[in-house]
């Protein structure tokens, strides 16, 4: 029943078309913006990790680092929540920031690079890798890995996503209200014309519908309706004229019939009455 009501209602069709169109546009916009925001948030985290890794790489390049003596040359701060590792080209860990275990870095190492991984605590993290050439190390290349818990970044992304979704929902509600008002205002002239058409009676055959407020798209319909009213008025005028002429033509014979009937009835002559009736017939 409701679908049939919508199918036969111009107001509902226009309203639903506007709402669906705006809703789809907002969803596409939300998906695009959400992807951009998530990318920017992750890029910001990658940049921060990359800067930390480059600081360590720069420290290694400025100090004399003997073979196997990488750890003393590293500016690790044990209170830092990030995880640091220095690895050789084959992936062996030469030094870290003092945590137990190793970071699950994909081998072979490539730099610069950024990727997700599981931290030794089991939390999901993000890591960045850069190259370092320690002073006094010849052509040897080391890789500095810096990792950090990414839960705060994910929480920020979730908050931004929630803000976006709430904003889209509010915009959709506002647009729905505006669409409803717009549709009602657009159909108001049509409703006024319908009311004017319903008020026309048989005694107002020469009345025409007011078309000044009709939209251009509906104006031809109103003009054709007025032409139909004009044709009906002409037909009614012809019928009235015909009826008046017929009444005038019949008035004299009927008066004569009545006079003869009254005379014959008064005389009591049935034969004369029948004869007069036969003559008039």
Question: What can you tell me about this protein's structure?
Answer:
The protein is an alpha+beta fold and 281 residues long. Helix content is 61%, strand content 11%. The protein has six helices and five strands. The protein has a five-stranded antiparallel β-sheet with strand order 2-1-5-4-3. α2 runs antiparallel to α4 and α5 (219-267) runs antiparallel to α6. The protein starts with a helix and ends with a helix.
Bin the helical content.
55-70%
Radius of gyration: 48 Å
Which strands sit side by side, in order, in the main sheet?
2-1-5-4-3
Task: Tell me the overall shape.
Answer: rod-shaped
Q: Could you give the order of the helices and strands?
A: HHHEEEEEHHH
Largest beta-sheet details: 5 strands, antiparallel
**Multimeric state of these chains?**
single chain
Catalogue the unreliable spans: none
The class by helix and strand makeup works out as alpha+beta
Count the helices. How many?
6
Q: Cα distance, first to last residue?
A: 64 Å
């Amino acid at each position: 029943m409701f679908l049939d009501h919508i199918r036969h209602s111009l107001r509902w069709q226009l309203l639903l078309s506007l709402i669906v169109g705006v809703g789809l546009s907002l969803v596409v916009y939300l998906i695009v913006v959400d992807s951009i925001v998530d990318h920017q948030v992750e890029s910001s985290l990658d940049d921060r990790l990359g800067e930390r890794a480059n600081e360590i790489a720069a420290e290694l390049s400025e100090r004399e680092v003997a073979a196997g003596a990488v750890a003393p040359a590293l500016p690790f701060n044990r209170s830092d929540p990030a995880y640091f590792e220095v690895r050789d080209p084959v992936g062996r860990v030469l030094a870290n920031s003092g945590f137990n275990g190793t970071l699950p870095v994909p081998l072979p190492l490539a730099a610069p690079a950024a990727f997700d991984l599981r931290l030794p605590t089991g939390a999901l993290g993000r890591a960045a890798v850069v190259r370092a050439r320690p002073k006094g190390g010849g052509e040897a290349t080391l890789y500095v890995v810096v990792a950090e818990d990414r839960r705060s970044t994910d929480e920020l992304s979730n908050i931004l996503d929630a803000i976006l979704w709430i904003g889209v929902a509010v915009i959709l509600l506002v647009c729905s209200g505006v669409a409803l008002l717009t549709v009602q205002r657009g159909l108001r002239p049509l409703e006024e014309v319908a009311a004017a058409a319903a008020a026309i009676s048989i005694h107002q055959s020469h009345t025409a519908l007011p078309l000044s407020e009709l939209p251009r798209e509906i104006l031809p319909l109103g003009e054709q309706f007025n032409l139909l009213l004009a044709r009906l008025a002409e037909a009614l005028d012809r019928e009235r004229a015909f009826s008046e002429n017929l009444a005038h033509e019949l008035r004299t014979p009927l008066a004569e019939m009545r006079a003869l009937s009254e005379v014959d009835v008064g005389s009591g002559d049935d034969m004369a009455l029948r004869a007069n009736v036969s003559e008039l017939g």
